[in-house]
Amino acid sequence: MSLPVSTLRVAMLCASGLGGCASEPLAPASVQTDRNTYLRALDISTGTSAERFERCRTITDEWMRGDCSLAVAQREASRSVSSAEAWCPHLGESKWLYECYFVAAEAVATVGDAAGARVLCDRSGRNQGSCRFHLYQLEVERAVWSASAHVLEVQAAFDALAQEHARPVEGPGTQTIRQNWYTKVAFRHNITDGSWCQPLGGAHRTDCEQAVWKVLHSVALRDAAAPR
Fold it and tell me: Taking the model in full, what pTM does it have?
Protein backbone atom coordinates (compact mmCIF):
# COMPACT_ATOMS: atom_id res chain seq x y z
CA MET A 1 0.00 0.00 0.00
CA SER A 2 1.49 3.40 -1.13
CA LEU A 3 1.28 6.60 1.09
CA PRO A 4 -1.64 8.88 0.12
CA VAL A 5 -0.93 12.14 -1.67
CA SER A 6 -1.08 14.83 0.99
CA THR A 7 -3.80 17.42 0.93
CA LEU A 8 -1.00 19.97 0.66
CA ARG A 9 0.17 18.49 -2.64
CA VAL A 10 -3.39 18.63 -3.94
CA ALA A 11 -3.49 22.27 -2.91
CA MET A 12 -0.22 22.87 -4.74
CA LEU A 13 -1.67 21.43 -7.93
CA CYS A 14 -4.72 23.62 -7.53
CA ALA A 15 -2.51 26.66 -7.07
CA SER A 16 -0.61 25.79 -10.24
CA GLY A 17 -3.81 25.57 -12.27
CA LEU A 18 -3.29 21.86 -12.98
CA GLY A 19 -5.86 20.48 -10.60
CA GLY A 20 -9.11 21.82 -12.06
CA CYS A 21 -10.01 23.31 -8.68
CA ALA A 22 -12.34 26.16 -7.88
CA SER A 23 -10.65 29.55 -7.72
CA GLU A 24 -9.60 30.86 -4.30
CA PRO A 25 -8.63 34.29 -2.97
CA LEU A 26 -5.00 35.19 -3.58
CA ALA A 27 -2.69 34.08 -0.78
CA PRO A 28 -0.24 36.47 0.92
CA ALA A 29 2.98 37.00 -1.05
CA SER A 30 5.08 34.88 1.32
CA VAL A 31 2.67 31.96 1.05
CA GLN A 32 2.54 32.24 -2.73
CA THR A 33 6.34 32.30 -2.86
CA ASP A 34 6.47 29.15 -0.75
CA ARG A 35 3.96 27.48 -3.06
CA ASN A 36 5.96 28.38 -6.15
CA THR A 37 9.15 27.11 -4.55
CA TYR A 38 7.39 23.88 -3.59
CA LEU A 39 6.15 23.30 -7.13
CA ARG A 40 9.59 23.99 -8.64
CA ALA A 41 11.19 21.56 -6.21
CA LEU A 42 8.84 18.79 -7.33
CA ASP A 43 9.64 19.41 -11.00
CA ILE A 44 12.59 17.15 -11.85
CA SER A 45 13.43 19.34 -14.85
CA THR A 46 14.44 22.22 -12.56
CA GLY A 47 17.65 20.67 -11.26
CA THR A 48 19.31 17.73 -9.57
CA SER A 49 17.82 16.08 -6.53
CA ALA A 50 20.33 17.90 -4.33
CA GLU A 51 19.39 21.25 -5.85
CA ARG A 52 15.69 20.59 -5.48
CA PHE A 53 16.14 19.43 -1.90
CA GLU A 54 17.99 22.65 -1.09
CA ARG A 55 15.17 24.58 -2.73
CA CYS A 56 12.74 22.93 -0.32
CA ARG A 57 14.84 24.13 2.61
CA THR A 58 14.28 27.75 1.60
CA ILE A 59 10.53 27.47 2.19
CA THR A 60 9.55 29.53 5.21
CA ASP A 61 6.50 27.52 6.27
CA GLU A 62 7.71 24.63 8.43
CA TRP A 63 4.98 22.18 7.43
CA MET A 64 5.32 22.92 3.73
CA ARG A 65 9.13 22.73 3.96
CA GLY A 66 8.98 19.27 5.52
CA ASP A 67 6.44 17.93 3.05
CA CYS A 68 8.47 19.32 0.15
CA SER A 69 11.64 17.58 1.37
CA LEU A 70 9.75 14.33 1.84
CA ALA A 71 8.32 14.60 -1.69
CA VAL A 72 11.81 14.97 -3.18
CA ALA A 73 13.03 11.99 -1.15
CA GLN A 74 10.02 9.99 -2.32
CA ARG A 75 10.84 10.77 -5.94
CA GLU A 76 14.39 9.58 -5.31
CA ALA A 77 13.11 6.34 -3.82
CA SER A 78 10.96 5.66 -6.88
CA ARG A 79 13.85 6.37 -9.27
CA SER A 80 16.67 4.58 -7.43
CA VAL A 81 15.91 1.96 -4.81
CA SER A 82 19.61 1.61 -3.99
CA SER A 83 19.58 5.18 -2.64
CA ALA A 84 16.03 5.16 -1.33
CA GLU A 85 17.00 6.46 2.11
CA ALA A 86 19.82 8.75 0.96
CA TRP A 87 18.01 11.99 1.75
CA CYS A 88 16.23 10.87 4.92
CA PRO A 89 18.95 11.98 7.39
CA HIS A 90 18.73 15.50 5.96
CA LEU A 91 15.18 15.85 7.25
CA GLY A 92 16.36 15.98 10.87
CA GLU A 93 14.56 14.52 13.88
CA SER A 94 10.98 15.11 12.83
CA LYS A 95 7.89 13.32 11.63
CA TRP A 96 9.17 13.90 8.10
CA LEU A 97 12.25 11.82 8.87
CA TYR A 98 10.07 8.93 10.00
CA GLU A 99 7.81 9.28 6.96
CA CYS A 100 10.91 9.22 4.77
CA TYR A 101 12.12 5.92 6.22
CA PHE A 102 8.61 4.49 5.75
CA VAL A 103 8.70 5.47 2.06
CA ALA A 104 12.23 4.08 1.69
CA ALA A 105 11.20 0.79 3.30
CA GLU A 106 8.33 0.46 0.86
CA ALA A 107 10.63 1.09 -2.11
CA VAL A 108 13.15 -1.51 -0.92
CA ALA A 109 10.40 -4.05 -0.20
CA THR A 110 9.00 -3.80 -3.72
CA VAL A 111 12.23 -5.23 -5.15
CA GLY A 112 12.20 -8.14 -2.70
CA ASP A 113 14.75 -6.97 -0.13
CA ALA A 114 12.68 -7.88 2.92
CA ALA A 115 15.59 -7.69 5.37
CA GLY A 116 16.63 -4.24 4.17
CA ALA A 117 13.05 -3.02 4.31
CA ARG A 118 12.69 -4.14 7.93
CA VAL A 119 15.84 -2.26 8.91
CA LEU A 120 14.36 0.91 7.43
CA CYS A 121 11.03 0.27 9.15
CA ASP A 122 12.87 0.08 12.46
CA ARG A 123 14.10 3.64 11.83
CA SER A 124 10.62 4.98 11.12
CA GLY A 125 9.87 6.00 14.70
CA ARG A 126 6.19 6.22 15.49
CA ASN A 127 5.43 4.73 12.07
CA GLN A 128 7.27 1.49 12.84
CA GLY A 129 4.15 -0.57 13.56
CA SER A 130 2.35 0.60 10.42
CA CYS A 131 5.51 0.17 8.37
CA ARG A 132 6.01 -3.41 9.53
CA PHE A 133 2.38 -4.28 8.84
CA HIS A 134 2.68 -2.77 5.37
CA LEU A 135 5.76 -4.92 4.68
CA TYR A 136 3.77 -7.95 5.78
CA GLN A 137 1.05 -7.08 3.26
CA LEU A 138 3.60 -6.61 0.48
CA GLU A 139 5.32 -9.93 1.18
CA VAL A 140 2.01 -11.80 1.20
CA GLU A 141 1.15 -10.19 -2.15
CA ARG A 142 4.50 -11.27 -3.62
CA ALA A 143 4.16 -14.81 -2.25
CA VAL A 144 0.90 -15.39 -4.14
CA TRP A 145 2.85 -15.79 -7.38
CA SER A 146 4.88 -18.69 -6.02
CA ALA A 147 2.12 -20.31 -3.96
CA SER A 148 1.52 -24.02 -4.42
CA ALA A 149 -1.76 -25.48 -5.71
CA HIS A 150 -1.80 -27.86 -2.72
CA VAL A 151 -4.03 -26.30 -0.09
CA LEU A 152 -2.08 -27.46 2.97
CA GLU A 153 1.05 -25.92 1.49
CA VAL A 154 -0.93 -22.74 0.84
CA GLN A 155 -1.87 -22.60 4.52
CA ALA A 156 1.68 -23.39 5.63
CA ALA A 157 3.10 -20.60 3.46
CA PHE A 158 0.67 -18.07 4.92
CA ASP A 159 1.34 -19.19 8.49
CA ALA A 160 5.10 -18.98 7.91
CA LEU A 161 4.80 -15.38 6.71
CA ALA A 162 2.62 -14.47 9.67
CA GLN A 163 5.14 -16.00 12.07
CA GLU A 164 8.06 -14.30 10.31
CA HIS A 165 6.38 -10.93 10.80
CA ALA A 166 5.17 -11.76 14.33
CA ARG A 167 1.53 -11.49 13.24
CA PRO A 168 -1.05 -13.74 14.92
CA VAL A 169 -2.78 -15.76 12.20
CA GLU A 170 -6.16 -15.06 13.80
CA GLY A 171 -5.33 -11.48 14.85
CA PRO A 172 -7.09 -8.24 13.86
CA GLY A 173 -6.01 -7.00 10.47
CA THR A 174 -4.62 -10.38 9.53
CA GLN A 175 -8.09 -11.71 8.70
CA THR A 176 -8.48 -9.49 5.63
CA ILE A 177 -4.99 -10.36 4.44
CA ARG A 178 -5.71 -14.08 4.91
CA GLN A 179 -8.99 -13.80 2.99
CA ASN A 180 -7.25 -12.01 0.12
CA TRP A 181 -4.49 -14.61 0.20
CA TYR A 182 -6.82 -17.55 -0.38
CA THR A 183 -8.84 -15.63 -2.97
CA LYS A 184 -5.79 -14.71 -5.05
CA VAL A 185 -4.28 -18.20 -4.81
CA ALA A 186 -7.61 -19.76 -5.83
CA PHE A 187 -7.89 -17.41 -8.81
CA ARG A 188 -4.28 -18.04 -9.80
CA HIS A 189 -4.81 -21.80 -9.93
CA ASN A 190 -8.44 -21.52 -11.13
CA ILE A 191 -9.75 -23.58 -8.21
CA THR A 192 -13.48 -24.23 -8.68
CA ASP A 193 -13.94 -27.34 -6.53
CA GLY A 194 -14.93 -26.61 -2.93
CA SER A 195 -13.47 -29.94 -1.78
CA TRP A 196 -10.04 -28.33 -2.26
CA CYS A 197 -10.57 -26.67 1.13
CA GLN A 198 -11.59 -29.78 3.09
CA PRO A 199 -8.15 -30.51 4.61
CA LEU A 200 -8.20 -27.12 6.33
CA GLY A 201 -9.86 -26.18 9.59
CA GLY A 202 -11.14 -23.10 11.38
CA ALA A 203 -10.81 -19.69 9.78
CA HIS A 204 -8.51 -21.04 7.08
CA ARG A 205 -11.24 -23.34 5.78
CA THR A 206 -13.91 -20.62 5.92
CA ASP A 207 -11.75 -18.17 3.99
CA CYS A 208 -10.74 -20.85 1.51
CA GLU A 209 -14.36 -21.81 0.80
CA GLN A 210 -15.28 -18.16 0.28
CA ALA A 211 -12.35 -17.83 -2.12
CA VAL A 212 -13.49 -20.81 -4.20
CA TRP A 213 -17.02 -19.40 -4.28
CA LYS A 214 -15.63 -16.13 -5.66
CA VAL A 215 -13.83 -18.02 -8.42
CA LEU A 216 -17.00 -19.95 -9.29
CA HIS A 217 -19.02 -16.73 -9.28
CA SER A 218 -16.48 -15.09 -11.57
CA VAL A 219 -16.58 -18.05 -13.97
CA ALA A 220 -20.39 -17.97 -14.01
CA LEU A 221 -20.42 -14.26 -14.83
CA ARG A 222 -17.83 -14.77 -17.55
CA ASP A 223 -19.80 -17.64 -19.11
CA ALA A 224 -23.03 -15.65 -18.97
CA ALA A 225 -21.36 -12.77 -20.78
CA ALA A 226 -19.82 -14.96 -23.48
CA PRO A 227 -21.38 -14.67 -26.96
CA ARG A 228 -23.69 -17.52 -27.86
Answer: 0.69
